[in-house]
Design goal:
The structure holds two protein chains of two kinds. By secondary structure, chain A is mostly beta strands. Chain A has no helices and ten strands. Classes of the chains: A mainly beta, B mainly beta. At the A-B interface, strand 5 of A face strand 5 and strand 10 of B.
Amino acid sequence: QVQLAQSGTEVKKPGASVKISCQASGYTFSNYYMHWVRQAPGQGFEWMGVINPGGYSTTYAQKFQGRVTITRDTSTRTLYVELSSLTSEDTAMYYCARDNIDYWGQGTLVTVSS
Amino acid sequence: DIVMTQSPLSVSVTLGQPASFSCRSSQSLVSSDGNTYLNWFHQRPGQSPRRLIYKLSNRDSGVPDRFSGSGSGTDFTLKISGVEANDVGVYYCAQDKGWPYTFGQGTKLEIK
């Protein structure tokens, strides 16, 4: 069965960067686009960006341009997102999701606090 | 960006009774391939969202037929024919017609 297993909780100080991983299993990872979506506490969902199956093309939400990098490693079936210049407004649950947002990871909580 | 608007923000339903959720998009979600790229998700507290419906009216694997999706290019409805206790949580609509994918703000379902 399709599974997306994300890395654990992160606590960062303002101005720092965070890198979260998402390891896929149960399907051919290299055939699918992959997305990152976040959800601030008590809020709705915010799409951050997407990477193509080959890993050479990304599209980011305008809000995160210049601050987010999505990468993938086909050999380990792992997706990554790195977000820099963190502020308290980046405190959220971060989810990876497959292609047509059919399968989601369990989420990684990122807390930004001084 | 396509704006997704849901109503109401919350609904309280008696067990066994029907429930209905509305969603509206700022642009048509009908693609050139004829499909309508509208999804419905259910999220319980502390859990990841689970997709229930894709392409307007297709149920995901394992989703009971109590759930049904319908609508036109910009107006959409999710219906539960008879609410059960484990249906509580927040229901979100989302469009995947194009990037950026966008989501409604959610409708919270409670049991009366």
